[in-house]
Design a protein that fits this description.
Layout: E1 3-7, H1 12-23, E2 29-32, H2 37-47, E3 54-57, E4 60-63, H3 67-77
Parallel strand pairs: 1-2
Antiparallel strand pairs: 1-3, 3-4
């Protein structure tokens, strides 16, 4: 299972998504796109969006803190 969260430190929805993943015991890579330009470009290429959070769960791209889609992607990955 590969989970990446593209986020910024000041984004409340990013914090909520990361707390949610942590509460479910899901390990994830937190990528701060405000400090990593290459990661920001990668996020935009994957999602077509400049807003955060963007979650990449085993290649499924989820824009925003969309709990039902996150749950479905996690269930499909296990």
């Amino acid at each position: 299972m590969s989970v990446k969260v593209y986020s910024t430190p000041t984004c409340p929805y990013c914090q909520a998504a990361k707390r949610y993943l942590a509460s479910r015991g899901v390990p994830f890579e937190d990528i701060d796109v405000s400090r990593d330009r290459a990661a920001a470009i990668e996020m935009i290429r994957k999602s077509g969006q400049q807003g955060v959070p963007v979650l990449d769960i085993n290649g499924e791209i989820i824009v925003g803190f969309d709990r039902p889609r996150i749950d479905a992607a996690l269930a499909a990955g296990y």
